[in-house]
Design brief:
single chain; alpha/beta; four-stranded mixed sheet; 11 helices; about 50% helix; about 10% strand
């Protein structure tokens, strides 16, 4: 398990929610390669298959495995609650080449498949160029796969955050943190995330970032390595109706506040 230690008052006071268009973009790319996601995103997949076939996604797919380490510089925690895609792509392009190289090496060590390892090895020959190349691929994926649907996606993400905010006001932070996902558990020591890492992450005055995601379902994800802000990404409420009409999505995502997630 990963333990996010939240015992310092300053850390607790800095817990916040945000949305991330660059996170949703990389997660959308992963959905294309994950057959299990088809049941949740079938109508979206049907609409984007043609556009996706015209994109060169191999470098992103190599660097963003479902299993193993995925570089955090490609999904930097957003600096504000509603960061735009241009702002976040600038974050990616501003990553330190030394950090890029370090994270790509970690990815190469954990990724499965010789083809992916070879692609990562080629990227590692010039980390600065690799960073810019991967940022360009993210921008292409955003433009063709996510941007046409962003208003719908953003509405659902914001509805989830509004739902959690009402829970905070009526039931307190403990309730909100304890009902984000079945694999997340609030204890007196902090947040336990059920995974195999065995890591302990000290949450300092920068706080803990919580991000709902449309494309992540049914998984959880976390950013735990320095220098990045500790972040937990969880499936947004109402994901089963992501591609249905707005009225249905709103009724599901913004429902009961203190009776669960």
């Amino acid at each position: 398990m990963t333990l996010f230690v939240l015992q310092d008052r300053d850390g607790l006071m800095a817990v916040r929610f945000a949305t991330s268009p660059v996170w949703e973009t990389q997660a959308a790319v992963q959905v294309l390669a994950d057959e299990r996601a088809g049941a949740y995103h079938a109508s979206w997949l049907a609409e984007v298959r043609a556009d996706a076939s015209e994109l060169w996604l191999a470098p992103l797919l190599a660097a963003l495995p479902r299993h193993g380490y995925a570089p955090d510089f490609l999904v930097p925690p957003p600096p504000s609650a509603r960061a735009g895609i241009a702002e976040q792509l600038a974050q990616v392009r501003g990553a330190d080449p030394a950090e890029v190289a370090r994270e790509l090496r970690w990815c190469q060590q954990t990724v499965h498949g010789q083809a992916r390892r070879r692609l990562l090895a080629s990227l590692l020959t010039d980390p600065e160029r690799a960073r810019d190349h991967l940022a360009d691929r993210l921008e292409d994926a955003w433009t063709r796969l996510v941007a046409p649907f962003w208003m719908r996606i953003h509405d659902l993400l914001q509805c989830d955050i509004d739902h959690r905010a009402r829970g905070l006001a009526r039931c307190g932070l403990r309730h909100v943190l304890g009902h984000l996902h079945p694999k997340l558990r609030w204890t007196t020591r902090g947040m336990w995330l059920a995974d195999s890492s065995g890591r302990t992450v000290e949450v300092d005055q920068r706080g803990l970032l919580l991000m709902p995601s449309v494309y992540l379902w049914p998984h959880l994800a976390a950013i735990v390595e320095p220098p990045w802000l500790p972040t937990i990404i969880y499936p947004a409420a109402g994901i089963g109706l992501s591609w249905s009409n707005t009225t249905e999505r709103t009724s599901v995502s913004c429902g009961a506040v203190c009776s669960g997630s």
